[in-house]
Write a structure and sequence with these properties.
single chain, alpha/beta, TIM Barrel, 2 domains, 8-stranded parallel β-barrel, elongated
């Protein structure tokens, strides 16, 4: 039989889930490794789907790529796992079955996990392994990242003339995570030459049908759909799906009405689901004509009018001072607000508020930011990846926008183990780079899932930079990458060496975005030792430690710390317009003194220039 001929004449039935059945048998290991260790188990599942009526069998190789197998120490077995997966599927297939080699997406939530070049190398190795076993075609599935599936589909079509099925996955009904509508995505994929385009995973048949109602029947490729059994239920730490086989069969009839010609199942589906689909569609011809419902276009309002000048723009023109004043650890806020007022009166441009710095719980920086707004201060809010999952991050961003807090510092966040609650979970759903990209996506009016937000946000995104590293150029390369993701400026960890200021300037002067250099005055020798030995990412020079050790009283120690800070400030002012003062232990008077010192030094320079002229 010829796949291309058959798919034009009839509706083909695909397999259902592999992982669902493996987990049901108690398997708790890499599913693809079972091709080598338990081939009979995999063959039995394939056989069950063939007996249920599946016309298209797919190899158990979804995650059999270098990147995913490396998690299990199996990266050297890419070829053998893929080739065995194809052999097993072929041995289970009937004479009337097509056997496709399966390749799944590599990128997950974190776009930064794999570069474009890494994706291509990863894909080629798996592709060539599968092609060695002469599959009837290729099935590319569960691609949330449209850039990734475009990339791999181009490679696949260049390397083989075999039939190719290309499936994307949606987070929201009708939309990919980059905001592209499903109809546009499938049309763009069709132009790259696959034989079938469609959707799989994430959504059950009801929502998949709703999405496909807005998709016209392709002119060259055919449509396919592999829905989940349903939305999952979380019980006792396990995701489970309902036993709804009869319902699944009925919904297959509606998928047919949308012009779908290849219908299978994804998560939660079993041979019973596939049997129900086969029985429901038995003898029915494909639908060749339909009227697609036009997608509803949501008008995205423009950004706020009369917006405040962004600090990253202001610093290009004049000295700009950002002062970090961490929210209090206790519920008394009068001292904090008193300090904020004094810092602003001294000449600071704004107050920045950390997001539970050092993994220690504090009053929400959003709440304290609201308090500062009532005082006429436009706060810069830190947002850490550690404390918020992907849902919470988006909710937090929407809340910040609603409150008019548009200046952000995106940080990874110190791990929970360094704080007061070492047993707490560090979330890290996304990296700092992914979060920068997400914020920029919000600025286009699009949520992570691709669904329109109804309004564009107007966030200005600062990123963190640690200059206290052994190899500075590697850290700068990471800065350059953050700029590509959308960073508008950088705030650095504090420096403690005059020479470091010059070194930093030479390393970052080529960047197209401004850098605010961090200065944090020391308060005692114990404080200096703690920062040097225990705070991640900060190292103090020996001369600074010696100077702090000589201080005999707390007052002398504070004066010495201020003297060191002023020397650093002077060095930084000669090279950078942006100063980022970090207030130690809510001792805001130290930040007030440094802020005044900066303004006085600037005034002296201006006056000196006028006198000289």
């Amino acid at each position: 039989m010829n796949f291309r001929d058959e798919v034009q004449k009839r509706i083909l039935i695909g397999e259902g889930a592999m992982g669902t059945l493996l987990h049901a048998t108690g398997v708790d290991q890499c599913n693809e490794e079972l091709n080598l260790t338990h081939p009979e188990l995999i063959k039995n599942i394939h056989t069950a789907y063939v007996q249920a009526g599946a016309d298209l069998i797919q190899s158990n190789t979804y995650g059999a790529n270098h990147y995913k197998l490396k998690r299990y120490g199996l990266e050297d077995d890419v070829s053998s796992i893929n080739r065995e997966g194809m052999k097993i599927a072929r041995s289970a297939a009937s004479n009337d079955s097509f056997v496709f080699g399966t390749i799944g997406a590599s990128r997950g939530l974190k776009k930064s996990d794999l570069t474009h070049e890494e994706i291509k190398r990863n894909f080629r190795e798996q592709l060539f392994s599968l092609l060695l076993e002469d599959p009837d075609g290729l099935l590319l599935e569960t691609f949330y990242d449209f850039e990734e599936i475009e990339t791999v589909l181009k490679i696949a079509r260049q390397e083989t003339d075999l039939p190719i099925i290309a499936n994307v996955s949606m987070h929201e009904v009708g939309y990919l995570q980059n905001g592209m509508h499903l109809a546009e995505a499938l049309a763009r994929l069709e132009d790259l030459g696959p034989d079938a385009v469609g959707v799989n995973c994430r959504l059950g048949p009801y929502h998949m049908i709703r999405a496909l109602e807005q998709v016209p029947i392709p002119t060259r490729a055919v449509l396919c759909a592999y829905p989940n059994a349903s939305l999952p239920e979380y019980s006792d730490g396990i995701l489970t799906y309902g036993e709804n086989t009869e319902y699944f069969g009925k919904r297959a009839l509606e998928l047919r009405e949308q012009g779908v010609r290849i219908i299978g199942g994804c998560c939660g589906t079993t041979p019973k689901h596939i049997k129900a689909v086969k029985e429901a569609l038995q003898g029915l011809p494909p639908v060749t004509l339909k009227k697609a419902r036009a997608p509803k276009i949501e008008v995205i309002e423009s950004n706020r009018k009369g917006e405040k000048q962004a600090f990253y723009n202001k610093v290009r023109q004049e000295r700009t001072i950002l002062v970090e004043l961490d929210p209090p650890k206790k519920l008394e806020t009068s001292l904090y607000l008193e300090g904020a007022a004094a810092i602003m009166a001294a000449g600071a441009d704004t107050i920045t508020l950390a997001d539970n710095s050092l993994a220690t719980p504090r009053i929400s920086n959003m709440a304290m930011g609201m308090q500062l707004q009532t005082m006429g201060i436009n706060p810069l809010i830190h947002l850490a990846c550690r404390d918020h999952n992907l849902i919470g991050l988006q909710s937090h961003l929407m809340g910040l926008h609603t409150l008019g807090m548009e200046e952000l510092l995106v940080v990874t966040g110190d791990p929970s183990k360094v704080g007061d609650f070492p047993g707490a979970t560090s979330v890290y759903d996304v990296s700092s780079m992914d979060l920068i990209a997400l914020v920029k996506q919000f600025n286009e009016g699009i949520s992570y899932s691709g669904k329109p937000l109804g309004r564009k946000t107007n966030f200005k995104v600062a990123a963190a930079f640690n200059p206290n590293v052994k190899v500075l150029h590697r850290a700068v390369a990471r800065m350059e990458k953050k700029v590509k993701y959308g960073a508008d400026s950088f705030l650095t960890q504090p420096i403690y060496s005059v020479g470091q200021a010059e070194e930093l300037y030479q390393a970052v002067k080529h960047l197209p975005v401004p850098v605010f250099v961090g200065i944090m005055p020391l308060t005692s020798y114990r404080n200096a030792e703690f920062i040097h030995h225990e705070v991640p990412g900060i190292t103090l020079p020996d001369q600074v430690l010696r100077a702090m050790a000589k201080a005999e009283t707390p007052l002398q120690a504070e004066r010495e710390g201020m003297a060191i800070a002023k020397e650093l400030v002077s060095a930084v002012m000669d090279r950078f317009n942006g100063i980022y003062l970090i207030t130690p232990f809510l001792r805001y008077r130290m930040s007030v003194e440094l802020t005044k010192y900066i303004r006085i030094q600037d005034a002296i320079k201006v006056e000196g220039s006028v006198l000289y002229e």
